[in-house]
Every structure is written in C-alpha cells, then in structure tokens.
C-alpha cells in the first residue's frame, strides 16, 4: 500500500510539473471561490453536527446514514452526467480500486465517524483546535510515504503545534479525555486520508479528478469500515430508540429523517468541495485555508455556544497556528526555490498573496472586524 501511494505521488508530481501555468487572475478567482465554498460547508456542518448529536445521539449510525445518502447522490449525478454527455463515467477494476481507493475510504470513514462521536463529549472550540493537529499527521504521513524529506524545520513545526495543543486544552472546562482522544485519533487517520486522496485525485489514468466520481468510489469502503463499529456500539440502542425505528409519531420520524438528510447533503457538499480543492490547488493553499477556518470556527463557537476560552487557551491556539503558519512558509519557500529555474516565482508569489488576501477578507467578515 505504501509503495502504491509513493508511485501515485511521483506520477502526479510529474504531471503537475509539466502542465503549463494558468492565467493568474482566473486561477485566483477560481481558487477563491473554491475556498469560499469549502468554508461555508465546513463551518456549517461543524455546528449542525454538534446540534444533531443532541437530537440523535448515535454518531456512528448517523455517519452511516450520511454515507449512504452521499453514495446514492453520487450515483444519481454520475448517471445524469453520463446521460447528458453521452460518455461513460470511469469504473475502476477491482485491483486498482483496492490498491488506490481503499486507504482513502477506510481512513475517511474513521475520520468522520470519530469526529462526530467526539461531539458527545467536547465543545466545538476544543474539537476544532484538536482537529487542527491533523496537519502534524499529514506531515508525518508525507514523510512515511517519502513525499517530504526529514528536516529540522519539520520538527520545529511539530513541536509548535503540539505545544499549542497542550496549552489550548490546559484546564479547559469542557475537556473530556475520551472526547479528546477520539478527535486526536480522527486527526491521525485524517493524515492518511488526505495524503492518499491527493495523489489519487491527481492521478490522470484513474479518472477520479471529478469529485462525483471520487465520492462514488470512496463511499463503499467508508461504509464497510464504519458499519461494524456502528453495529457493536449502537446497534441495539438504534433499533429500540424512539428517535429511529420506534418513533412514537410520524412527525418525530420525519423530524429525524429531515435532520439526517440535511446533514447528509451538507456532508456531500463538504466532501465535494474538499476533493475539488485538493485537485485544483496545492497543499500550501489547503494549509493556509485551514488556518483561517479554525480561527473563524473557534470565534463563532465562543459567540454562539458561549464556549469558554481562557487566556492560556488563546495563547495555545496562536502557538498552534504559528506552527501551521511556519509549515506554510517553509512549503512556499521550497516551491519558490524550485520555480526560480522555470521563471515562475513571481507568479507563484502573487498567487499566494492573492489567496492570503481573499482569506483575510473572509476571516475579517466572519469575525466582524470590517
């Protein structure tokens, strides 16, 4: 599996290097729109999942329902695209389907399922900051897959983020060991998920560049991985609760069904925007986007849900974000040095500045500064 991931990455890197640069303004506008869509779905789904858990306290079963709806929706959209364009959609044979997609699917199901499960125990602010540690695991998996080289700067990034994480959770009134460990485990598998997903979506011969096709192929693996856990931990309760199969009225059943369907639609939109963003941008853009998204989510959580955040917690948050920011700067520095040879450094710098300007405006609007 590790060998296949490395081969995938080499192929996608060669393709990305040989492709001609796109017009700057078009690239900035398109990627800015992608980031806006990603922000909207991600922040909205975070708050909705926290609310849904109080209505339907079975996070694993809820995630299974979301996955089923996403698969059906992806199948419907693929059928419509095939009918409209009169061209068949990609169907992976079993061998590449197992080797190239299984890791993304299994890791993705655990990432989403464990994240939703943690909402039973911890606040949105603590969840958001803990989940931001995923960048550490993405970095570690990149080293394991030999996508990144081992450097002292990477150790500094890991130490900053880890220290910030400890400070943020220090004496938190909402701290729960079990919930914290669930999010931390979700962050770990998230590293494997996005490392595998990036190289899979950028591999031309797989034909999974379209997010609809990627979602369609990934969902079965996600359902197979999460279903046993849902049955073991929640099976009996789901079968006997008034929130599901033993609803005492049609209104209660429809309310539950509506909440699950609404969450599934948001989850589909989020996954669609994530795969689209991964395919069209670099990991630098994703990291920078994540920095501002975490700030916005934490601030909104403190305002909407009155999540308590102390001065030490804020110091921890900015320490963690400074580590992520250092990773972004180092990443851009390496890209810039490589692109000097091809006379594209100015264009690349302008792109990054453009992304930062767009994201800064979004963050300020959400925080009410301007």
List the helices and strands and how they pair.
Elements: H1 2-18, H2 24-55, H3 59-85, H4 94-118, H5 124-131, H6 134-144, H7 152-168, H8 177-201, H9 211-240, H10 250-280, H11 283-304, H12 311-340, H13 345-367
Helix pairs in contact: 1-8, 2-10, 2-11, 2-13, 3-4, 3-9, 3-10, 4-8, 4-9, 5-8, 5-11, 6-8, 7-12, 9-10, 11-12, 11-13, 12-13
Characterize the structure shown.
With 370 residues, the chain is mainly alpha-helical. It has one domain. Helices cover 81% and strands 0% of the residues. It has 13 helices and no strands. The chain has helices at residues 2-18, 24-55, 59-85, 94-118, 124-131, 134-144, 152-168, 177-201, 211-240, 250-280, 283-304, 311-340, 345-367. Helix 2 packs across helix 11 (283-304), helix 5 (124-131) packs antiparallel against helix 11 (283-304) and helix 11 packs antiparallel against helix 12. The longest helix is centred in the first third of the chain and has 32 residues, at 24-55. The protein is globular, with a radius of gyration of 21 Å. Residues 4-8, 10-22, 339-346 and 366-370 have low confidence and may be disordered. Residues 31-326 form the Sugar phosphate transporter domain.
